[in-house]
Amino acid sequence: MASWIGIGHASLEENPKAAEEAAMMALKNAQLPDGQSVNLVLLFCSSLYPQTKIVESVYSTLYPKVLVGCSSAGEIISSGSLKRSVVVLLFSSDKIEVSAGFGESAHENPRQAGQRASFMAAQGIKKERHAFLIFPDGLAGNGSDILRGCQEALGTSFPIIGGSAADDYSFKKTFQFFQNKVLTNSVVGALFGGEVSMGVGIRHGWSPIGKPRKVTKSYLNRVDELDGSPAANLYAEYFGSVAEELKQESLARLTLAYPLGMSIPGEEEYLLRNVLRVDPATGALIYSADIPEQSHVRLMMSSRENILSAARRATLQALNGLNGKKPLFALVFNSVARKKLLRFQAKEEVQTIQQALGESVPLAGFYSYGEQAPLGAAMHRGQSHFHNESVVVVTVAENS
Amino acid sequence: MGPELILVLTVTLGFSFAILLILWIHGQKKLYESSKSLAYFKKLCEELDQNTKIIVKQDLELTRTHESLDKRARGLFALHELGNKMGSVFDESVMAEIVTKTLTEEFGFDKAAFFMRLREKSTLFCLRSHGIQEKETIEKIITLIEQSLQNNAGGILGSADDDRPDIHKIASDLKLDSFLLMPIALKSEKVGVILAGNSLSHEKIGEDERDLLSLLADQVAVVIDNTKLYEQIRQSHHLLEAKVQERTRELEKMNDQLKHLSDMKSDFVSSASHELRTPLTSIKGYSSILISGKLGPVSQEQQERLEKIHRHSNELVEMINTLLDISRIERGKTEMKLERFSLKDLILKVVDLLQPQYIARKIQSKVDIPENMEPISGDVAHLQRVLINLLSNALKYTPDNGSGVITVKVNPAEKEYQISVNDNGVGIPQEALPKLFTEFYRVDTPMNQEIKGTGLGLSLVKKIVEAHKGAIWVESRVGKGTAFYFTLPHASSTQP
Fold this sequence. Notes:
CATH architecture of the domain at 339-494 in chain B: 2-Layer Sandwich
Helix content of chain B: 55-70%
Number of helices of chain A: 10
Largest sheet of chain B: 5 strands, antiparallel
Number of strands of chain A: 26
Low-confidence stretches of chain A: none
Largest interface: A-B, 25 and 28 residues
Order of helices and strands of chain B: HHEEHEHEEHHEHHEEHEEHHEEH
Strand content of chain B: 15-25%
Structural class of chain B: alpha+beta
Distance between the termini of chain B: 165 Å
Strand content of chain A: 35-45%
Radius of gyration of chain B: 56 Å
Helix content of chain A: 25-40%
Low-confidence stretches of chain B: none
Shape of chain A: globular
Mean pLDDT of chain B: 84
Number of strands of chain B: 12
Number of domains of chain A: 2
Largest sheet of chain A: 8 strands, antiparallel
CATH superfamily of the domain at 339-494 in chain B: Histidine kinase-like ATPase, C-terminal domain
Distance between the termini of chain A: 10 Å
Oligomer: heterodimer
Structural class of chain A: alpha+beta
CATH class of the domain at 339-494 in chain B: Alpha Beta
CATH topology of the domain at 339-494 in chain B: Heat Shock Protein 90
């Protein structure tokens, strides 16, 4: 075996040594031989604790070639979902190359931030490039634009997979980690190259309902009008008096269960968009990614069964991408919306994924404010999109 | 250009026009039809959309009900689990840990804290909290919690935009959007408070949570009560144990003292008897010399008195000897000279020895001894005294009118023989039975005033039987008779 993988976690609650503990646990689980350097560390942690201290602790404990990660809204390991914790994934391989990059000012210039992060990471890979793992700020910047920037540097159909940084539902400030530094309003990413196979699966489980609506006025992620009337009216129309009693704040929550869907030609599932904010003055809806003018959108609906089975299908899709190779480890970038909707069944969703993967496959991930993955992932070379309310499963295997 | 050509052209044009006209009309008709079906589809679409609205509304209702039910079911399940966990908890800080952990991990609250009064009437103290980083803040809000719960037993549902200033301050200090304060009441006394809160506005705490927390508080109250009871029981148990130990020590001390006293008594009796025996021997010697007339003639009256002195001296010597024996056996100074012999032979010998008395008192003697008795191991001389003593007693208290019967019986058992001496004499009053084997005790009856005795015989008998690892007891009914039982182990079980 020429690769080592270990995952560690610890609760940050009243434990100033949690980061070290998680790092040591990852190291112990990896059974890394003396002298073997650490290629990659992925770090996901709650935003409620001093970030710099956590990142520096993990970095100085493991001294990896590449450390990337971000703050989250809940962390994921094999046994289920965690709260207020730190999760460390350690990976080392002789055959696989990893290189990291970051781009700042995602809010001011999302496209440029994506481009810079990709370009910087690409410099470090000499062998064939396979996939780019990104963690953009989930609050600052247009998610679709960041992705476009990455695609400009790496190619339109290059697989870009990731989850947007979150901040435990505070919706104030998220953090991105690059080596021993803590960034915000940025994009960080790790590019994979060499003898590696990666499988990606993404699903949400929602289906369209009702008649299509035309976006008659929108600018990037702000939708002013649908079918010529204020966008928020759509929900009032469908939910009637119920929507009246729900105040603006709750409308955002309502759209978690009933997001908008955009159909993409040739794709099985719709792209989902959920509302970040409502502009009470104009009735405009602010989404976390683009909804182009003149596009058609539909109201989407799902059930718990469909949401849970989507997680299983995403996992199977990710396994398919490896062409029968056994995964070394798997990553999950799961939407906070799903956690919110599933509530106590959130653990069940993670277990579903672990079961589909096989019990022995190490698993780590986090709950994100947005997901990035190619839709036609079975073909592996489809264009990546920005998603909401979706679950992304990534499998990584070494080529024999 | 000829007129024919013009005609042909005209006709052709006419035809073309007619065909075009027909085509146009046909097209118009098609257009009309398709616009009709388009309108139909539009209408259908609208209708379906109306249905969608109904479906969505229903779904929303269902989702909300589902969520509420889910929350309750989950909460009840967590409560049940909590109950199981707390069943074996008798420590308040362990309970606080379980409760706050359940609130954050199972119920899904962001923050939770457990307050308790450590002593009656003292202020609340935060035993445990989850999700609250600012420990100093908790200390600060304790007074606020006390105040706001003063006249409230059903708990308080508060939020950040609350009108009540105390409630508002608790929310803002703990960075909570909504929270619940639930008092834990034990016999209408508020012994503690549970706090649970969420920091985000779209996770507002409502009546569902209040109901669950109220159930939880009840459960916690029971555990606290149990803990207190357990503590009381534990303490009284300790107290009791200490008392028992103290009493045991006292008893041991007393026992030692008694033993010492008993030893002193035996020593005293032994030395006193020795001291008494010497002058008695000379009294006996001189009286017999006087009776023999060697020192001169003795008158009839003198003779009678001298014989009395002699006889009483003899009795005294015997009594002293018995006393000496008792004290020797008691102090272990007299060893039983163990030898194997036939118990049957011994009994028959003793009965034979006493035959003249049986005859004199017209008492019938019965002996019931099984054949093939194993030999026993014992001190023949001492056991003979036992039998003589018991039989002499029986002879003394059995009527001499010819109806008296004394039976000596041997019952073989697994490891021992049980020997009984049974008479149908006067019997012994119930209250006298326990004291029967103590030294110098004599049953206080008019009849006993006449019958001689030292009150030492049975005491000696008991000592001898016990020195043989046997037991002795008595059964008696006044007017019906008395039965003495004693046991002697088989030879095999006395030998090592």
